Amino acid sequence: MLTAFTAGLLLITISELGDKTFFIAVILAMHHPRRLVFVGVTAALAAMTILSVLFGQAVSLLPKVYIHYGEIALFIAFGIKLLYDASKMSATSDPEVVEEAEAAVKKADLELPKQKTPLAIVIEAFILTFMAEWGDRTQIATIALAAGNNPIGVTIGAILGHAICAAIAVIGGKMIAGRISERQITFVGGCLFLVFGVVAAIEGA
Prior knowledge:
The protein has helices at 2-16, 20-31, 34-59, 64-88, 95-111, 118-133, 137-148, 151-177, 182-203. With 205 residues, it is mainly alpha-helical. α2 (20-31) crosses α5 and α3 runs parallel beside α6 (118-133).
């Protein structure tokens, strides 16, 4: 359980910094009360984590050999892709990610009343984050972790990792966002995925 918790915590914390959901939280926190944004964002990420772990448990019903090699292949493929992406990035934040986050928030603001209640702000943060996270690499990685590791450990670790990133985004996001090196974060994430792939291979040997 401790191994699953650590893996979930590290994977999510590193992967989510500078991600689209991170910048959505940053932008929302600049216009709305931080605590409401934090509640909505964290609730969405927790819900996504639980769904991913449940899906991972369904996948775990497959023959163990398929799960083992699938987990290794997935982590190594993600690791190589992230390292390749990092090699193509500039040293600063990826403007496309920031622009996508801004566009998502603007679209939601147009569809919702100008005078927002606390509940409306929480719901907006929840929906925007949930939709942005759907199909994201961290969701797929969480499914893979849950398929081959303790589901409770993965769930707690991943939710804590998401909460840490959400807290960073809403508390000091505006100041930190301009200093985040998307390239460095992506590089570290790629290395982490490769490490998990190697560990999965060794444990199954």
